[in-house]
Amino acid sequence: MNALKKIIYVIIAIIVLFFVVGIFLPADYTLEREVTIEKPVDVVFSQVANFENRVKWSPWAAMDPDAKNSFEGTPGEVGSKWIWEGDPQKIGMGSLEIVELNLNENLKTKLEFVSPRAGIANGGFTFEAVEGGTKATWHFNQKLSYPVERYLGVLLLDKMLAPSFESGLQRLKAQCEALPEAEDDGDGEEDSTSLEEGGA
Question: Which CATH fold would you assign to the domain 27-177?
Answer without folding.
Answer: Alpha-D-Glucose-1,6-Bisphosphate; Chain A, domain 4 (3.30.530)
